[in-house]
Amino acid sequence: MMRTPRKTRVDRVIRRLQVILKALPLLCVRIGTNRDDQQEPAEEDTDAADALVVSELTDEVLVLDERPRYHLAACDWVGERPTIPLPVNEARQLGFTPCAVCAPDATLAAATRHP
Length: 115
Ligand SMILES: [Zn+2]
Fold this sequence. Notes:
This protein is α+β, with helices and mostly antiparallel strands and 115 residues long. 49% of the residues lie in helices and 11% in strands.
């Protein structure tokens, strides 16, 4: 059976709508991810002794552009986000604060005490 040109045009519009509908959930996921991006992890409650130890260390931590926290490489919050490696003493000097999710200060201080 031959299709009339009009029917073909309708088919094309329907196909385009189907593509848009298929993309909608992806768009929603994108928006959701962006909203999550605005949330910052809490700051680690570093005790004074750990802070003193860590401020002398050059172990590498990760920072994210325009984010106040520094993280360990294994941090769950960092996940796939793009990071910049920095020595931890430098990160602290630059005003970055430790992430409560991965607790870099407690982890690095403990590793220094018990290598
Ligand atoms: Zn972290």
